[in-house]
Amino acid sequence: MKSPAARNWKTGALSIGLEWLIPILVVALWQWFGSMGWISQRILPTPASVLEAGVKLIRNGDLFVYIGDSTRRAFIGFVIGGGIGFALAILNGLLPLSEKLTDSSIQMIRTIPHLSLIPLIIAWFGIGEEGKIFLVALGVAFPIYINTLHGIRSVDPGLIEMGRTYGLRGFALFRTIIYPGALPSILVGLRFALGIMWITLIVSETISANSGIGYMAMNAREFFQMDVVVLSIVIYALLGKLSDWMAKLLERSWLKWHPHYRRAK
Amino acid sequence: MASALSASEIIHSRQAEAPGGAAARGLQVEVRDAVVRFGDLTVLRDLELSIPAGQFLAVVGRSGCGKSTLLRLLAGLEQASRGAVSIGGAASAGLRSDVRVMFQDARLLPWKSVLDNVRIGVEGGDRSQALEALELVGLADRAKEWPSVLSGGQRQRVALARALVSNPSLLLLDEPLGALDALTRIEMQQLIERLWLERRFTAVLVTHDVSEAVALADRVVLVENGTISQDITIALARPREKDSGFSHYESSILNRVLGRRPVSVNQDGFAI
Q1: A177 and B109 in contact by Cβ < 8 A?
Q2: Among B77, B100, B120, whose Cβ lies nearest the Cβ of A161?
Q3: Where do the TM regions start and end (chain A) (predicted)?
Q4: Under a CB-based contact definition with an 8 Å cutoff, are residues A161 and A181 in contact?
């Protein structure tokens, strides 16, 4: 006899297996085609050689230095840009005068694709850290700004009125009602911003850098090390996935009250 | 009258218990010549109303007659463009901590547990006081849950606990039972009546359900075109049964609201 728990475990394993079936099959086919010589190593290295390149770069320590450099840039830019976007949104969400003054200017700047500023930024900052951090900050600020502002605007006015009748005002009103009410939307902005953060970093690192994963990829291309090029693409994907997973985790723990995010009991 | 006696016994025992004597006392409310305008629209015109301390007043009227605005004026959520509101003898300016409002929707914060929602009503957020208030409405066992898992009636009971936890002297009820099903409504009416009898705050209930007004109130006022057009004292013993006395009040108020003439006095009606 099988216990229901064992059966649950089995169906769980089966569903995970189904999810991973196609990715595993693709990698296996890719390896097979490569090792049969049907795909040239110069065009697309096999998964095994990518892995090998990864191990080599881990051994000599370069990989962690590059990942560290990229992550540091990404997060400094994110904190600066996100902080500015968040602060402006709070200000404009709460003070009509401030909104009148700044919102339309912000919306105008928003329509500029921030990556189009790269030539200008190289001229301003050279290929140093500042330019890349500036670009990331610029790219991240807008999704955070827009979603935070939208979140504050969409807080139920009935709840705010209720809070006022119970004597909540100023910061207490913000902390008890406005901020938690805006939080679902703020977290949507956070996830958008994380995506933009990595894309901006990839582009700016491939164009101008002397360290980081983008630099690693461009450098490898110069020497035709295709395995390292593919490795850096995989690392970007993993970093993107990791930050998205962290944002999801935040949603789960901060929005426990929300029926959408509650896990089935 | 056994029932009336037991009710007054409850009042006496509760008043003896009440700490400091500040609580469990209704406030007297006076509205003088109040005019409330929204832009060009005059919602309340020259409204005069005097509510003695501890009275249960019901305000009835058709939608858009200004009855909710009257309640919001008493709550301090609207300001009179002319005239004055005084609560407890002092001119009222804005929101007061001894005046609580229950809205048509419960307005619980979905990100706070049931208990934490009630704690908003206590200054300093005392847990045991909040839990006591939840016991009062029979929901102490749901204290840790999110409001989203409660039924509509339970949410309104939590809102009632939140409104009563600070022992208000004036409770304003803006159609709080309007969205509930018939059976839950009756239970909620009984709960509100019981708590009012125990605590003797002044209560103002806005409703368009005339039967609910007659079931709960000492006095029913009818608001038409922004002013009070009828003022009826309900002289029925509590707890109220839907007997002939009840239906007399109910039908006479309803006829007045709808502008119908009662059949028995239909003397100058047109005949064909």
Answers
A1: yes
A2: B77
A3: 12-33, 74-97, 109-127, 133-152, 173-203, 223-242
A4: no
Nearest Cα neighbor of B175 from B232, B121, B231, B105 is B105
Q: What is the pLDDT of residues A93-141, one digit of tens each?
A: 999 999 999 999 999 999 999 999 988 988 998 878 889 999 999 999 9
| Spatial strand order in the sheet of B170-174 | B99-102, B170-174, B202-206, B56-60, B219-224, B227-233
Task: Please answer yes or no on whether A162 and B103 come within 8 Å at the CB atom.
Answer: yes
Instruction: Name the average pLDDT for chain A.
Output: 90
Domain annotation for chain B: domains and CATH numbers = 21-86+201-260 (3.40.50.300)
* Residue A257 CB-density burial (10 A; 0-12 exposed, 13-18 middle, 19+ buried): middle
B111 and A161 within 8 Å at the Cβ level: the answer is no
Q: DSSP states of B141-185 as a string? A: GGTTS-GGGS-HHHHHHHHHHHHHTT--SEEEEESTTTTS-HHHH
Please, what are the domains in chain A?
A: 47-261 (1.10.3720.10)
Q: Which residues pair with B59 in a beta bridge?
A: B206, B221
Q: For B219-236, what is the mean pLDDT?
A: 91
CA distance B157 to B192: 9
A160 touches chain B (CB under 8 A): no
**Does A5 have pLDDT greater than 90?**
no
What residues of A are in contact with residue B123 (Cβ under 8 Å)?
167
Residues of B with CB under 8 A from a CB of A: 75-77, 95, 97, 99-101, 103, 105, 107, 109-112, 120-121, 123, 146, 148, 162
**Does the distance separating the beta carbons of B105 and A168 come in below 8 Å?**
no
Closest-CA distance, A159 to chain B, in angstroms, reads 6
Percentage, residues of chain B above pLDDT 90 = 51
pTM above 0.90, yes or no: no
In a mutagenesis test of the B interface, which of A155, A159, A161, A166 is the best target, namely the one with the most B β-carbons within 10 Å?
A: A166
Q: In this predicted model, what pLDDT tens digit does every residue of B10-48 receive, in sequence order?
A: 444 434 343 433 345 788 999 998 899 988 888 999 899
CB contact under 8 A, A166 and B107: no
Closest Cβ–Cβ partner in B77, B109, B110 for A165? B77
- Mention every residue, 6+ apart, whose C-beta is less than 8 A from residue B51: B28, B29, B30, B57, B202, B204
**CA pair distance B159, B107, nearest whole angstrom:** 7
What band does A4 get if pLDDT is binned at 50, 70 and 90? low
Q: Which of B111, B115, B162 to mutate to test the interface with A (most CBs of A within 10 A)?
A: B111
